[in-house]
Structure formats: C-alpha cells, structure tokens
Amino acid sequence: MNRLLLSLAIVAFLSFATSISSTAQQPIYKNPASPIESRVRDLLARMTNEEKVGQLATLLGWEMYDKRDNSISVSDKFKKAVAEQRMGMLWATLRADPWTQKTLKTGLNPAQAAQATNALQKYVIENTRLGIPLLLAEECPHGHMAIGTTVFPTALGQGSTWNPALIQKMAAAIALEARVQGAHVGYGPVLDLAREPRWSRVEETYDEDPVLNGQMGIAMVTGFQGASIKSGANIISTLKHFTAYGVPEGGHNGGSVSPGIRELMQVYLPPFRDAVGAGALSIMTAYNSIDGIPCSANPFLLKTVLRDQWKFNGYVVSDLGSISGLFSNHHVAASPADAAALAINAGLDSDLSGYGFGKALQEAINKGAVSMAVLDTAVSRVLRMKFAMGLFESPYVDPEKARSQVKTASNVALARQVARESITLLKNSNNILPLSKSLKTIAVIGPNADNVYNQLGDYTAPQADGNVVTVLQGIRNKLGSNTQIQYVKGCSIRDTSTNTIAEAVLAAQKSDVAVVVLGGSSARDFKTEYQSTGAAKVNATSISDMESGEGFDRVNLDLMGKQLELLQAIVKTGKPVVLVLIKGRPLNVNWSAENVPAIVDAWYPGQEGGNAIADVLFGDYNPAGRLPISIPKSVGQLPIYYNYKNPTHHDYVESDAKPLFPFGFGLSYSTFEYGGLKVDVIPSASDVQVNVTFTITNRSSRDGDEVAQLYISDKVSSVVSPVKQLKKFARIPLKAGEQKTVTFQLRASDLMLLNSAMNWVAEKGDFTVLIGASSDDIRLKQDFLLPTDIQVKR
C-alpha cells in the first residue's frame, strides 16, 4: 500500500512540475492573466518587421473564402495572402452586393458566415509563426451589410427620430448580429454634417447640426461597444469620416474643402469629439483634403487634435485606398512608399486596402523614412484591440448562435419602431391624414411603392423574397381584403423610355384616394460598374435608377425621370392625393408643397418601412419625426443650413432666402402648446448652470410625441456666431390632454465659442433662450445674463 501511495505521489509531483514548467514557458502574450500592455509589449518584441507591417494591412475579405454547396473553406487567395502579407485584418468578409459579386446564392447566410470566419481564424492561428488572430471589420451603418441581417432606416431616418436612446438600442442589435457571425469592428457611425445635399452620401449622415449629430454618434458608439467589447455581443465602433468630408466643393464626392480653423473646431469636429468622449475605439480618415492637407496625412488632425487634445486611445484606419490616393489622387507624394510614410508618420495606423502600406511601407522603413518607434506605435494600437476583445482566448463563434440571433422577431419589430419614429409629416391640409381604414378603393402609385431595394438605401445586402415590406404590401397588410387596392408603377426613378402614367391616372380616377410614392434610389445593380473604392462609376447617359449613394453626386435636386409628370397627372384627377417620399437626400418638392394636400417623408425606411408608413397613413401611429436637414427651394440657395453665421440672410431677386421646410420641422396629428418658461442662472467659479424649465400640453384628443428643441442666440460675441444654435432637445410622449414640465440644463460648454485667441470661452454677456417645435417655429424665448467669462477646457 505504501509503495502505491508513493507512486501516486511521484506521478502527482511530476504532473505539477510539468504544469509549472508549461506555465513558465508560455509567452506572456498568450497568458490571459497578464495585463494587456504587458502582452502587447511581449508580442511586439517577438515580431519581425514584416509581421508588424502585415498587422497594419486590412485586405478585402469577401475574396478569402470559398463556398461550395454548404461547404465553407478558406480560399487559395487567403492562404497566399497569409503567407506573403501576414495581414492582421480583413474588411467586408461577409459583405454581399453587386460590387463584391456576392449574391444570395454565392454569399453566406448567418450560420455559414460564422463557419467562414471560424475557418479564417483557425487557418491564420495554426499556420502563422505567432498565431495572431484576425480583426474582422464589417459595414454596419444601418444594419450589418450581410445576407440575412436586419435592415434599419438609413442615417437620415435615424436622425429624424431625434431619439438617441432608440438609436442606441438599434446599434446594440446591429452589434450583436455582426458579432455572433464573427465580426469585431463595425464601420459607423458616419458623423459628417449633411450640409451639401448634392453630395452622393448625404443619406449616410444624421443631420446638418453638430449637437444632434454628436448625440447620435454617442448613441451609436455606446450601442456598438456596450460595457465591454469582450462581451461576445459587442463590436468596436469606427467613426467616419474624419473630417469635413460631407461638404465637398460642388458636391463632388471626396472633393476638397476649405473651412477656417475656427469653423473646423466649432462645427465639424465636435460630433467626433463627443463620440471619442463616449469611448470610440476606432476612427476612419476621410478622402478629402482640408486647406490643402489630405486627411489621411494630416498630423494636426491625427496627433494634435485626436491624441493630444481628445486623448483618443484607439486606432486610426484609412478609408479604402486613401493612402495610395496621396500619390495617385492628391499628388502630395512622389511614390507609394512616400505616401505610406506620409500617412503613418502623420498618425494613421491601419491601411484599409492592403496596398497602401504593405510593400510600400516596408520600402519606406528600409530607406529610413519611417522609424521603428512609429511602426511599433501603430502596431501596438491594433494589437491592443485584439487583446481587449479577448481574441487570443476566444477567436471563434458559434454558428448556431448566428442562426438564431440574427434578424430575430424582436429586431424586426425594432426596425419597424425606428422607421415609425423617423417618418416626418411635412404637410396635412384639411387633416386629410390619417386615412380611414374603411376606404372602399385606394390607388397605390409610383416607382417606390413596391420596389424592395429602392426602400433600403446604399450599403445593403441582397434580400430574400419576403424580407422587405414595401409600401404597397404595408397598405395591404393594414387594410386586408375589405379595400380594393390598385397598384400601378407609373414610371421609373430615372428611366424615361417607358411609363404607365395613363394607367396610373385611370387607377386614381377609380379610387377614393391615391397614395403616390416617389423619390430616389440608392439600389445598386449588377449592371453598374464600380471604382476600386466601391463608389459607382457614373455617366450622364446611364439609365440605372440609382441617383443617390456613394458616387452619385447631383447637379440639381429635381425629381428625376417622369416622376413630377406622374404626380401632376394624378393630382389633376381631383382625387385626394398623399405623397410619400422615399429617398436619400433632400429633393425639390416645391410643386408638391403647393399642390399636394399631404406629404410624408420617410427617407430610406428599411425593411419594415412599408408597415411603418402604413401605420402613419392610417393613424395607428402618430408621426413625430422632425427634419434633421433643411429642405431647400433651389440649389441656388445652397448651403442653407439653419445655424448660419450672422448677418441674417437677405432675400434673392427670384426668391426669399428661407428653406422650403426648415431644420427641426415636422407635423403631428396632435396639437401641442408651450408655456411657463423660466430661466435660472446659477454661476460658479469655473462653470455655470442655466436651468431652463417650461411646460408642453397636448391640446388634442390623440396621444402623440412632441420634440422640444432649445436653441441659444449669443447677442454679442467677440467672434461672429451663428444666428441660433441647437443645444438641447427631447422627444416627449404626451397623452391626450396631458401636460408635462420639461427641464433642460445648460453649462458653460453649451455657451462657449473659440475666441480670437483660439481659446474656448463662455463669454460674459446676454444670451437668448429660444424654445420651439423647429428652428423656425419658436414658441418661447427669454434673455439671461452670463455675469463673467468662463474658460472651458477642451
């Protein structure tokens, strides 16, 4: 017995000793108990220059897997890229659209997507010297751009909700759908200000205002990243596009901009600052230059502002091809190697393309244009994200979770709610809306009435039959078989070669009311050619319906094709007409505003848009969307954002200077009354607290939401200030007859400006508080005095 006990003791001791030895031999970077910074330093010390350069490359991911029937494996191209480039990241691995040539047949459903990302991770971990897992980035602006996911309204619709809490909930749903399929980074939010509606990417932006934009950015970052990116349900948020990308000269996508430094700091940078303050871990540079300096090689933006002033501790990624664009587009670099050196030395860490850094960066290092310290700094920022996400311990995902947790019933219901809250009622003469559900006949007319892809916007994957509810289907769902519904397309968005306007007129004549659905399209098709960046190649003779979306800049904002002709013909019948607009940018609706009794704006409302629009049209939902962007009367008024700087605009010879519909505008089926404004100023040594209190009363018999908006006007300032500036807002639900007291609190940071010495100061003097239902519908106002200057740290 003693001999047996002795043998067991020896075995136990040897096992323990082996365990200790194994632990001692384990590299620090593979030890999850070690601090992240220690793991980064240890791994960095083990890497060759080639491996470091590889970690900064983000290759196009959809080329990296093979699908044969239900079998998913890594592609030969991926194996070659791993062997030759040692890349650390992939982008858009799960993306499907005409550019990638991935269809419902050749692309991946959620379970297959999880299998694909697992296969990619397994290969790179098992077939590289150090086994560093991949960081996988995906497009996630209004849903994960992959097959089988939930499609929410595009950003202008999200901005129209004026409800950051709802957008945060939406972002969390998008993050979960992406993460369970194996993604780690979501590209979004887009924080460009929408001040140039001719620009093709307006639909991707939230609004024209830095405060509303900043709140939406905070909501998206918080929803994406959650409490921890290690949760298995959250993803890293990449802010786009840094910066001032949305106001290119002439509306040309990627064109140069030249705001003054004060304009840049006070208007274009604050939304990014707010999102960085919310914890954003990644940021993407813009294609454009600012005052002659390309954003992808701008040390003032990437070092002084982002790192020194804002204390950003994430990583910076280029937009697709923007590093090589320093050489080929901006012509500020004499070679690809010079372009790589310019970018990384300016503070750009990661290359989205795989060819901006790669060999070019290695060449720059070899000739001494990039130091080891600069290279190590960039690589450490990328590695830090991989450790923080727990990828070294948990690189794989569960395909069954992907199958069950993507596009759930609750996410589809959330898409409907976001769409409902985004819908904006622009006109409702004689209370034509809501429509009665007892209508005997209704005509549903227009190119966007029953077009799945025209309803979804750009950056959307192919959709299986039945995934998307169009306006026609939504009305059918609402009315059932009791109402005769006649549908006629009437015309296309752009193509004028054929039309059925005569049939549409006949349908309207036979109906009690006509719902006409017009607007624009960002629907990509397999006939369109694309640039290497994914933007479309556009020419004047193209007859694709696409007139919005990346690359589709406009010279005017008129309804294209025969749409206005169709609408005029329907109105001429004398039947009641409701115009529903589905589009990605403000369009010229001057004639409609004068002649159509009811106008509903839905932007691109996503997969549940048809149900949401029907909910509003038939009174099951009281609209409370508010315009996040001013609607001009003419392109000759541009730019026409509400918070322009003094002096006040004067009228033109042909027209007044006012927009057709102002920022913040939107009607309701309820009537709201404001009153009881009180403003209390409580100064302190280093700040001020201004409490603004008022009441809102629902004076109707219908429950509804009101969006209360607080604007500030600085009566006298040391530098020229906006005529008014949104500072606070709230979407407030009110029962019929209910009154609520609303309190907004302003601090010195809400009153500050960048003075002539380039210091942030809330200057002493008189301010006016303006409370209203839009920027042009002020119901209450009161002056208050700030007794002393207050320096604000930024």
TrEMBL record:
Q: Which Pfam families match?
A: Fn3-like (PF14310), Glyco_hydro_3 (PF00933), Glyco_hydro_3_C (PF01915)
Q: Which SMART domains does the record match to this protein?
A: Fn3_like
Signal sequence annotation: 1-24
Question: Looking at the keywords, is Transit peptide present?
Answer: no
Q: A GO molecular function for this record?
A: beta-glucosidase activity
The family line of this record is: Belongs to the glycosyl hydrolase 3 family.
Its name, as the record gives it, is Beta-glucosidase
